[in-house]
Specification:
The chain has 9 helices and 10 strands. It is an alpha/beta fold. The protein has 2 domains: about 45 residues, no CATH class; about 210 residues, Rossmann fold. About 35% of the residues are buried. The protein is elongated, with a radius of gyration of 21 Å. Helix content is about 35%, strand content about 25%.
C-alpha cells in the first residue's frame, strides 16, 4: 500500500484550499459566499473546518457522534484534478527516492484529502501526448481504496509530451477547479501553453516539481555515456568537478526560471526533492504554502 491507516487519519484532518478559483464556478458554501437556492436534499459529506455550523445535521450527529453537512441539489463541491506524469523519465531513483513512487504517494495524499473532504476528484496519468488512464470523477471517502489501487497500477512508459497532454486534458475536463500537476518537467516541448489552457478556463494551477537527489547533485565522475531514458539517445561526457558545478548551477537556474514564470502567471510552484519525506511535504510544507489547511 502507498500508506498506512495512521497516515490516512492525519490526512483526514486536512482540506485543499482554493484561493483563486473564479467566482461563479464553484457554488458550494465551503468555497463561496453564495448559497444554493434549492431545498432538495442531495447527500451528506463530512464536516470540515470552516463549514457553517447551521448546515450540520444535528439529528445525525446525535446518533453517530460525528458531524455531517447536508448538501442541496444545486450546490457543487470543489472540483479537484490531479495530473500525474507517468512517462519513462519518472522511472528513476531508488526505494523511497524513486520519482514515480514518490509522485504516486503525493497524488494519493492529495486525492484522499479531496475525497475525505467531499470534493469531486479526478486523477489522470499522463504519458506521451494524452492521459492514458483516469480515476473518477468520484466523491466521498468510500472511493479511497479504489483510488489507491488505481495509483498502484500506474506504470511508467512513453515519452513526455507535456504541453499536448495538458491541453488534451484541459479541453476534455468539464469542471474547473484546482489542478495539481506532479511532474519532473522533463518536457522538450515545454509545459507553459498547457498550463495556460487551464488558467484560461478558470482553473487554479499548482505545479509540484519532483526531482531525485541525484538529478539535483550527481555523484558520478569520470568518462560516462548517458542514455536518455525516453529516446534512448546516447551522450558521451567526462564528468569532473568543474562540469558538476556547472550542472548544479544550470539546474538551479532552470528551477528559478520556472518559479519566475509561475509567479508571473499566478501559478503555485513547489520544487521538491524526493529526499524530502513525502508526509512531511504534505503535512507541513503544503500547509505552510497555503495549499492545504
Amino acid at each position: 500500500m502507498l500508506f498506512d491507516e495512521a497516515t490516512l487519519c492525519k490526512l483526514e484532518r486536512l482540506a485543499l484550499v482554493a484561493s483563486q478559483v473564479r467566482a461563479g464556478v464553484i457554488k458550494g458554501e465551503r468555497r463561496s459566499t453564495k448559497r444554493g437556492t434549492s431545498i432538495e436534499f442531495a447527500d451528506y459529506r463530512d464536516y470540515v473546518r470552516g463549514d457553517d455550523l447551521r448546515r450540520v445535521d444535528w439529528n445525525v450527529y446525535a446518533r453517530l457522534e460525528r458531524p455531517f453537512i447536508k448538501l442541496l441539489e444545486e450546490e457543487e463541491d470543489l472540483a479537484v484534478h490531479v495530473l500525474l506524469d507517468a512517462s519513462r523519465s519518472m522511472d528513476y531513483g531508488e526505494a523511497e527516492t524513486h520519482k514515480l513512487r514518490y509522485a504516486q504517494r503525493l497524488a494519493a495524499a492529495l486525492g484522499y484529502i479531496a475525497l475525505a473532504a467531499g470534493d469531486r476528484l479526478t486523477l489522470a496519468a499522463l504519458q506521451d501526448s494524452a492521459p492514458v488512464s483516469q480515476f473518477g470523477p468520484a466523491r466521498g471517502r468510500g472511493f479511497a481504496l479504489r483510488l489507491l489501487r488505481f495509483l498502484e497500477s500506474v506504470a511508467p512508459g512513453g515519452a513526455t509530451e507535456l504541453d499536448a497532454a495538458l491541453r488534451s486534458y484541459a479541453l476534455s475536463a468539464k469542471r474547473p477547479g484546482l489542478v495539481f500537476l506532479i511532474s519532473d518537467l522533463f518536457a522538450p516541448d515545454g509545459y507553459q501553453d498547457g498550463l495556460a489552457q487551464f488558467q484560461g478556463r478558470g482553473y487554479e494551477v499548482t505545479v509540484l516539481h519532483v526531482l531525485a537527489p541525484e538529478e539535483l547533485d550527481p555523484q558520478l565522475a569520470g568518462d560516462l555515456r548517458l542514455i536518455d531514458s525516453e529516446t534512448g539517445a546516447p551522450q558521451d561526457i567526462t564528468l569532473d568537478g568543474g562540469l558538476r558545478d556547472r550542472y548544479r548551477a544550470r539546474v538551479r537556474q532552470w528551477r528559478d526560471d520556472i518559479e519566475a514564470h509561475a509567479l508571473k502567471r499566478r501559478i503555485n510552484y513547489l520544487p521538491i526533492s524526493t529526499a524530502t519525506a513525502w508526509d512531511e511535504l504534505v503535512l507541513y510544507q503544503l500547509r505552510k504554502r497555503g495549499l492545504v489547511g
